[in-house]
Every structure is written in C-alpha cells, then in structure tokens.
Amino acid sequence: MEKPALDVQLKTLPNSPGVYQYYDKNGKILYVGKAKNLKKRVTSYFNKNHDSHRIGVMVKKIREIKHIVVSSETDALLLENNLIKKLQPRFNVMLKDDKTYPWICIKNERFPRVFPTRRLIKDGSEYYGPFTSFKTVNTLLDLIKGLYKLRTCNYDLAEDKIRNGKYKLCLEYHLGNCKGPCEALQSEEEYNNNIEAIRQIVKGNFKDSLQRFRNQMKEHAENMEFEDAQRIKNKIDVLENYQSKSTVVNPKINNVDVFSVVTDEGYGYVNFLQLSHGAIIRSHTIEMKKKLDESDRELLELAIVEIRQRFSSNSNEIYVPFKVDVGEDLKITVPKLGDKKKIVELSERNAKYFRQERFKQMKIVDPDRHVNRVMAQMKEDLRLSKEPRHIECFDNSNIQGTNPVAACVVFKNGKPSKKDYRKFNIKTVEGPDDFASMEEVVFRRYRRLLNEGEELPQLIIVDGGKGQLSSGVKALDDLGLRGKIAIIGIAKRLEEIFYPEDPIPLYLDKKSETLKIIQQLRNEAHRFGITFHRNKRSKTALNTELESIEGIGEKTVVELLKHFRSLKRVKEASEKDLAEVIGASKAGIIFNHYHTG
C-alpha cells in the first residue's frame, strides 16, 4: 500500500506520550525520539527553521513516520533508549550505545539485600526497573529503608555461620538501621515479610506502606514528637505523589512476543510487541484486508506466523488475548490479570491507535473508502440486506397537544442532505396522537415519492419505541412497500433499536459508528422538527391575537410584525407610530383595542 503523504501522517498523530521513528525513502531508520505529546513534538520538526544543520538535513530525508504509544513520558524515555540500542539510527549519534538505566536489585541470598545497580546478573536475583534516574531509585530506597530495617553488609548469612557466631553486630544495628540478623536477633520469616512488602512498593503498590507511615506519624504526634511526625509526613507526600510508571513492563517478562488484533468490517489490525529483559524493543502493526470475512482468530493466527517470520523471532512464548493455534513449539499464554494482562492491553491500545490513524488518513486521502467502510459496518450492525446509503428519519413534535407537526431528515452516505429535509403539518389527526401522526407522515412521504418516481431510501428510522414503529410499518403496508424498505425504531431512554414484530430490542456498542450516525439522525430530526414547531406556534399565537381584532386582516398583521418585531411593541406603540405603518384608520382601531376599556 502506498504510504500517506507526510502532512497526512502528521495530522493523524495522537496527542499521547510515546516514541516516534523517522524513516527515509528506502525504509531505513533515521531517528528515534521520545515525546510527552507525539503530535506536538513531531509537528515541531516541520514548523520551524532549525539552527542545527544536522536536524535540517534529517528532516529533508524523512518520508515516513512511525510511532509507539505508551502510558507515560517515563515509559517513552525508557522505550526510546531500548529502540536506539536495537535499531542504531543514523541521526541518534548523541546517545551512546553503552548508556544504561538503573535497576533495583533484590539479591538472591538469605536475608536479601536491596540496592541499586546498572548491571543485570543472571544469578536468580530480582530486578525492578529500569528507572529513569538514580534520583528516583534513591528516593524509593530511602523510603524503603525508612520503613523497613534492612541489612547493608555483604556477609554470607548462612544459618550455620550465624549459629556459630561468626559475625558481630555493626554500627548500623546500633544506629537503629538494622535489626541484627547476623546474630539471629531477627528471624528469617520476619525479614522475608519485609522483602515481600518492598516488592509491592517497587511495583507501585503503596497502600500498606502508606498506612504504616500514617500510623507512625500519628504515634509521633501523640508523643509530641512533631519534628519526627513532620519527617514522616514528608515521606507520605513523596509516596502519594510518586507514580510507579518507571517500568515499561515487569522485568520478569523476558524473550516474549505479544500479539493483539482489532477488526472492523473490512480490515484487521494486528500489533506485535517484542519484549526483552522486561522492556519493549520492537513494536509493529500491520493492516490486513479481509477477503472471506475471516474471524479475529484466523487473522491473528495468519499475522503471528507472518510477523515472526518477517522479524526472525525465536521467542518460545507469546501472549495473546485469546487462544490461537500456531504450532506446538510455542507456549501460548492468555493473561487474565496482572502485569501480563497489562502488556496485552498495551498492545491492543497500539493496534487501536493505528486503526484510528488509518481512518483519519482515509478521510483525507480516500474519503470514498471511508464511506464504504462505514456503510458496510452499518449493514452488518443493523442486520440489513442492503447498505443504508440513503436513510430517512422521522420525528413528531407537539407540545401540550398544540400545533402538531413532524419532520423528516435525510442522510446520504452517512452525511446530512439538508436540501432533502421535509416538514409536515399534521392534517388528519385531532389532538396529540403520536402513533397516528407517525402513520400519516410516513404514508404521505412515501406516497409522494412513489407518485413522483423519486428514489426510495434503504432505511427508515422512526424516533420512538414499538408504538411509533408499528405506525410506520402500517403506512408502508398500505403503500405496498413492506419488505422493500427496512424500518427500525430508536427509543430515547436506553438507545434501544426495535425491529418490526421482534419484541427483543437490539443494543449497539455505545462507541460504535453505527449508533453515532443513528443518534445524529435522531438529534437532527428532533432539532429540525422543534424549530418548525416553535416557529409555527409563535406565528399562530401572534396572528390569533391581532387577527381577532375586528377590521384587522392578515396583511395588516404581517406589516405590523415586520416593522415592530413583536406583539409587545405593537401594544406599546403610540397611535402616531402605528399610523405611519398601517394608516390612521387601522391604527386607531388597534390603539383603542389595547388602551380603552
């Protein structure tokens, strides 16, 4: 598929944090960057003259922009680092390949130490991160040490060595920073419980720790130890303001491929994330055109085989949103909760962003394809035999039974066709009767279209529930159009879609384009009908009062309202002012009507 022009790619970027990648005409990577707002950052490259010659040269070479959406600016920074190391783009020379970010290590040992490191050693230790800076790591470790007393020595605290009294208490114990496990003054169980709590803190679960801090603060305050209470309060403030979004994903997730799919009537969009040491090193989304109405599962299975082959992936485990069959050698995981579930949701979010981007580009460069897709989707959602290229929607308007009117609005190819809108005065119905009024206007509308040989719609929508729908169906029956035009009703309260002779309503997805178009039709019909009704009611009220004056006719009323603009001004006008508009004789009649008796 031909790539959209750069201006189209720029217009359709999301206002979300993420990482962007620039490619030249040969598909070679030029640059990887991060952004708090992808659209603003990327657009800025093309909206100004650059002082740097290097940036100017790069911008001239850009032919394609790709991006990966992430949850936060921090995630974008870490993802940028991983991609630069992996892709080694030509214009990222300022970032050295050996740059690494710190982790928090929970050492694989008895009475584990907790410390920061830039090196990941495969010795069974737990690593959390990477973090954006040592400042963040030190803040967390300071909080942890303030709450849980941990050892900092590098002794081998084997059970037999402690029993034999090999170690002696050090200064950290006497300062109150350690509980002395080296002399068996702290049990292994208590220490490991603290380690479990620390795991929760570095994952971002601060609930238990916050509660303990609050208890400590309260205890200090009760003991009149206000400086200590303030110190604890400061830590609570830091904890509450700190959001643990410094990991791209769980560091335990290593050498895993993640796939997800979103689909519409004509296309499937499959996103692929490749994970290594808990970080995303690749993201790619492909668009697949459906040929035989393939299911989501079929599309995903085809895409997994294609993408893994294309990127020479040797991961032996994949995460997917539902079970797939892609060979016996792969471990298939369908996460239900936790970090694994979140990474599948991140993949789905990237697929959805890609799909939205393609829709926006479609509207700009290929509006016909966009309309075709929407019409095909409406046909499927509403269970129609034809695409609803021409839709007409009816709405009744009567307030307190007065001046009953109706409106018909027309949409063609999903857009309003205002020149085809029609207004109806209810002629055959006495009093407020929505059902009879609906039957009358539907009958009159399509009798006229038939008599004049005009095009009939593929879909009729009546604003109301089963009663109004039945009235519309009866009118079509009388005209011999039953079965030739699809007709549905939409109830206001729960957005229920009713079908003739079907007691069970259809509920559409609240975010679906089909429901949005139906709501737009209904709202437009209501607006158009209310405006007509209001104008008619106002005109009738004015005309009735003025025309009731003996000797005053319709022509005089029109002249008066045209000049004075309102009935109130007519009543307040002097006889001389009235005479200048309608002559002395009629002016005297109106003035005397309002100012005598």
From TrEMBL:
Location of this chain's protein in the cell: Cytoplasm
| Keywords linked to the UniProt accession | Cytoplasm, DNA damage, DNA excision, DNA repair, Excision nuclease, SOS response
Every copy of the GIY-YIG domain together lies at: 15-93
The record places domain UvrC family homology region profile at 272-471
- Chief localization class? cytoplasm
Q: Which GO terms describe its biological process?
A: nucleotide-excision repair; SOS response
Q: Give the UniProt entry's GO cellular component terms.
A: cytoplasm; excinuclease repair complex
- One MF annotation (Gene Ontology) recorded for this entry: DNA binding
* Gene3D superfamilies linked: 5' to 3' exonuclease, C-terminal subdomain (1.10.150.20), GIY-YIG endonuclease (3.40.1440.10), UVR domain (4.10.860.10), UvrC, RNAse H endonuclease domain (3.30.420.340)
Q: Which residues form the UVR domain?
A: 207-242
Domain of life here? Bacteria
Family to which the UniProt record says this protein belongs: Belongs to the UvrC family.
**Entry-linked PANTHER family:** UVRABC SYSTEM PROTEIN C, UVRC/OXIDOREDUCTASE
Reported function: The UvrABC repair system catalyzes the recognition and processing of DNA lesions. UvrC both incises the 5' and 3' sides of the lesion. The N-terminal half is responsible for the 3' incision and the C-terminal half is responsible for the 5' incision.
Instruction: Summarize subunit and interaction data from the UniProt record for this chain.
Output: Interacts with UvrB in an incision complex.
Protein name (record) = UvrABC system protein C
Q: Which organism is it from?
A: Christiangramia gaetbulicola
